[in-house]
Write a structure and sequence with these properties.
about 25% helix; five-stranded mixed beta barrel; about 30% strand; alpha+beta; about 350 residues; 6 helices; flat
Length: about 350
């Protein structure tokens, strides 16, 4: 998986410490000699500001705040005019390619990305009440992340793009893992499912305080992808960039630039403002169909979703004629999405 380089090199804090220690010594000497506390107060205030700036940047790096802010500020790319080798950012609905993943613990099928994190309690107390104090910490003892090639249908252009990753590709995922299992101090016995999962990975299944989190991106989810576009024989492919992407200085947020390695992948919730803004800027109606249940006369397999751009009279995902697309759209609008047999959602 990818990573983001620390905006503050490790020698910098040591250098700042070496600078501030003599400054404090000189300020203390001035305070004792001439009874002037202005210099000491100034040095103290300056050190607090510098320390806060360093802590703020490190915190934003660890929480992916800098990367998320950079991704939100980057404009969405128009694939119709994008050039080969250009760094692009698109938002759309994902679908599995040749290989579909299964989440590690919950066994959720038809995933394009899955991550599992296992933590062990290393606090000073054995009571879980101490887990809310400062005298505890959870140690990350196991990480499992997988990603497969997948397709994404761009909301803006309707183009279907292959996102291609290899086993050694660097990925920067912006996916929040949910809490799945958390043993308590009263009952440290592990469940049979958790024991089996640990044994399969050659991890200790002894009774102890554990916390397991898992995140995944299922087929049909909305994503934002940033990577390098490749055009070849009319096929659009997004691959991880060969060089790191710099976020630049975000002075309004007091953030230093960081270098992001690999493909950036962000999971969007249905009510995410980024998804709503991406759709509303197009000046047309987009309808996402969750399933096709009116395909009795259809002899071919229908996809799990369908996108219709009524303004440009074009359908994506499943080829329909424009009159039929308009007829279904009119039915949906006039009956307030009550078209029998279809489950649809208007994003605007």
């Amino acid at each position: 998986m990818g990573d983001a380089r620390d905006p503050i090199p490790s020698p910098i804090p040591c250098l700042l410490l070496l600078l501030f220690l003599p400054a404090f010594a000189v300020s203390a000497f001035i305070l004792v000699a001439v009874h002037n506390a202005f210099t000491l107060a100034s040095v103290f205030l300056l050190s607090i500001l510098v320390l806060s700036f360093v802590i703020w940047n490190v915190y934003k790096l660890r929480s992916n705040g800098t990367l998320l802010l950079f991704l939100n500020r980057t404009p969405t790319t128009d694939l119709l005019t994008a050039k080969d080798g250009q760094i692009v950012k698109i938002t759309g609905c994902a679908s599995c390619a040749d290989l579909a993943l299964e989440s590690s613990y919950e066994k959720i099928e038809r995933c394009i990305y899955s991550s599992t994190l296992l933590y062990e309690y290393k606090g000073f107390g054995s009571k879980m009440s101490s887990a809310y104090n400062l005298c505890f910490w959870w140690n990350l003892i196991y990480v499992e992340r997988c990603i497969a090639d997948f397709y994404i249908t761009d909301i803006r252009s309707g183009a279907r793009v292959l996102v291609k990753v290899s086993s050694d590709s660097k990925i920067s995922p912006l996916v929040t893992e949910s809490l799945i299992v958390k043993t308590s101090s009263r009952k440290k016995e592990l469940s049979s499912t958790l024991k089996k999962w640990l044994e399969e990975r050659h991890l200790s299944s002894e009774s102890r305080l554990l916390c397991l989190k898992e995140g995944y991106i299922m087929e049909g989810s909305y994503l934002t992808v940033m990577g390098m576009l490749i055009r070849k024989s009319g096929v659009l492919t997004i691959v991880p960039p060969p060089e790191p992407i710099s976020t630049g200085c975000l002075l309004g947020k007091f953030l230093l630039p960081i270098d992001v390695n690999g493909l950036v992948l962000r999971y969007l919730y249905r009510d995410d403002s980024s998804l709503s803004s991406s759709v509303s800027n197009q000046g047309c109606w987009w309808i996402f169909f969750d399933a096709c249940t009116l395909c009795a006369p259809c002899t071919r397999t229908c996809p799990s979703y369908l996108i219709i751009n009524f303004e440009e009279e074009r359908t994506c995902g499943w080829s329909w004629s424009s009159p039929e697309a308009r007829r279904v759209g009119a039915c949906l609008l006039e009956s307030e999405l009550a078209c029998v047999g279809w489950r649809a959602r208007l994003l605007r």
